[in-house]
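Researcher: We're teaching a course module on how sequence relates to structure. For the next exercise, students receive a sequence and then see the predicted structure as tokens, so they can try to spot secondary structure elements on their own. Here is the exercise chain.
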Amino acid sequence: MGRHSLPDEYGTDAVGPRTRGRTVAIATALVLVVAGGTALAARSGLLSFGGACDGTVHLDVVASPDVVPALRDAADLARKKHLTSDGQCLDTRVQAGDSYKVADSLRKGGKSTAQYEAWVPDSSLWIQRAGLGENATPVTAMGNIASSPIGISMVPSAAKSMGWPAKKYTWAQLTGAAMEGDKLRLGTADPARSATGLLALTQLGASTKKSGSGDDTQAAAMAKALSQRTTDSDGQLTDTLARDSSGTEQGNPRRNQALILSEQSSFRYNATAGDKDGLELFYPKDGSPQLDYPFALVDEGTESTDERRAAIRLMTLLGEDAGLRILDKHGFRTDDEEPSDALVAGAGGRSPQPYATSDSEPPTDKELQETLGMWTITVQSARITVVVDASASMANYVPGRNQSRMEVTKASMLQALATFTPEDEIGLWEFATLLDGNRDYRKLVPTERLGDRKGGGTQRDKLSEAFSGLQPVPGGATGLYDTTLAAYEEATSSYRSGKFNALVVVTDGANQDVGSISRSSLVSRLQDLADPQHPVPLIAIAVGPDADKDEVEQIAGATGGSGHQVSDPAQIHAVILKAIVEAGAKG
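Model: And here is the predicted structure for the students to work with:
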């Protein structure tokens, strides 16, 4: 297909923002700053569109690498045309920073070595992540400056074999093709570090469930296949493509034939690749998640009024005609409702691919968290022993449900089990008091590989049967402390390098074994056993109103793990995945 050349000029006129999809958010930003006094400045003309400079206000911006060239062009235009804020000319310096790295820095409470007043990540999910830390640096999202849908780009030979552009696929169908031997080698950026990768993987999971042809196990298997062809960042991904159309390059098993990419990334690649080696872009028919490029103020309370107003002025420039042309030139969408045909063609899209259809519903925070959890355990493989409370109180009914705590717990555990792959090692204990002689616990299934054959079935089959067979012990109390110590001693002594090792303990009550080790002694022993070089985080989950959240937090914290409390056992599955992600983030 023909590629469209890039426009030579953006234009230099500076008019007010248009009332179109993307710029509405920018206009909203001006409303949001009323409380800070900036609206008064806008009404009085202090945020002028040009003229003589009474001085210079310096503004530092850190941005996702893909949007940096556009922001630098906008900064250069502002300097060239003497764009002013409060009568002062803008001197904007834009530096590149991977969004996940900036988010982690802000979450820990620091901007970075080089200070900056504004941040433009490629997705709003990074702003959410940046705010998760207790001492997180405040980040104020002001609106979105652009967007870019995510699809699957292919080298021409692969696209032709898949029926591009006439044939349409769902995410599950496209990704499934990559699992059929060497038919389609598909690469992605690490979903733990890439919004593109994470949003696509989340959409893939939803697509698999919606099609009715798969479940969490199939989604995990697809994630496992993707993990074999993953790069650390988006910027490295296109380097994995065949260098040319020769049979040697196309047949190289280390070279990818398809990539999960944003439309803008495909556009940027094609701008230099030319017609022969350019990518063709599939837009999955069940929806393309979007990168939304939020513009955010960083630690707004410490910024001067001049800096704050200068940041807003730069943002409004990006919503004016000149700014929109800059963004369009670099392959970003500035109108969600009417995408540029030239932009789509430049990215490798062509009708009847559904590039103009509305994107799917944005994933919820819970869905993103569960996807990250699945990815963590899929990529690294896991070795996890699960210890479940079988005391008599597990027979109590869950409020609002016609089921006992144990019944709901079992269902949630079976749901979690489905997300693990055959390479993962999972085991099961139960505990109450005096279940096995003088011991409060009983080992039901040893911690072994789920894919291993066990008689007529697999370890997964054996575990499913054991989870389903869990029953509250009549008269049994909660022997939490001795059980936790014994389970942690075994988990640390059987540590497996190269896997995510963890111990999961689920209890609905505080320790009731008066003859057990004390809490302080347990914490001390756990601290002695914990080895930062061979981490085995304890994930302790307190279920229901009788459980002691402070207790599980203190016990789990001694190992570098985490304690959680849920009101409904149905939440256990999501909590386990969330805890796995948190533990993985700690290294």
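Model: If you want an answer key for the exercise: Residues 1-49 have pLDDT under 50 and may be disordered. The chain has 22 helices and 20 strands.
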